[in-house]
């Protein structure tokens, strides 16, 4: 059982590292258009710190309003994308 658990932990750690890098690269591309370019490690550190702070929230009911706002922003963005595609 410990062998499988070890591989699952290594797999999850790898996925999390790639996720942080992927998001940081995309944020860097957007930020470089509007502000002075920063190193990718700064963007990765900023994103990692925000993930760590979110994991300190013990009561998930506190996240519900933020989740609702995030869902609304996602749907608005999807609406803009569909509108631009059909133009």
From TrEMBL:
It is found in: Membrane. One of its GO terms (cellular component) is membrane. Residues 4-77 form the Amino acid transporter transmembrane domain. Its main location: membrane. The keyword Translocase does not apply. The chain crosses the membrane at residues 6-25, 37-57, 63-82. Keywords: Membrane, Transmembrane, Transmembrane helix. InterPro entries: AA_transpt_TM. The keyword rRNA-binding does not apply. This is Amino acid transporter transmembrane domain-containing protein. It comes from Cardiocondyla obscurior. The lineage of its organism: Eukaryota, Metazoa, Ecdysozoa, Arthropoda, Hexapoda.
